[in-house]
């Protein structure tokens, strides 16, 4: 959430190792909520399956609508 120039100033004069360590910490912090959610799904695989099925069905509906438009505009499937 910070501008690159600000980060460059923070690490000015330091070695690449310091930057890598800070970047690693930032990534771990950013991914922590995702990891927590994944751990919850591992405890209840049926909930994950339901969520994936719901996403699949929604994507299929959107794709079907879009393909109808494409077929109409291309002139296929009259």
Structure description:
The chain has helices spanning 4-10, 16-43, 45-74. With 78 residues, the chain is mainly alpha-helical. The mean pLDDT is 93.
What secondary-structure arrangement, pairings included, does this model have?
Elements: H1 4-10, H2 16-43, H3 45-74
Summarize the structure.
The protein has 78 residues and is mainly α. The protein is built from 3 helices and no strands.
Order of helices and strands: HHH
Distance between the termini: 50 Å
What helical percentage do the residues reach? over 70%
Mean pLDDT: 93
How many β-strand runs?
0
CA-based gyration radius: 23 Å
Shape: flat
List keywords for this structure.
single chain, 78 residues, mainly alpha, 3 helices, 83% helix, flat
């Amino acid at each position: 959430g910070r501008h690159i120039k600000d980060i460059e100033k923070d690490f000015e004069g330091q070695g690449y190792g310091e930057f890598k360590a800070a970047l690693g910490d930032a990534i771990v912090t950013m991914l922590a909520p995702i990891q927590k959610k994944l751990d919850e799904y591992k405890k209840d695989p049926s909930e994950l399956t339901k969520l994936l099925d719901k996403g699949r069905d929604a994507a299929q509906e959107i794709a079907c609508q879009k393909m109808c438009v494409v077929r109409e505009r291309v002139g296929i499937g009259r």
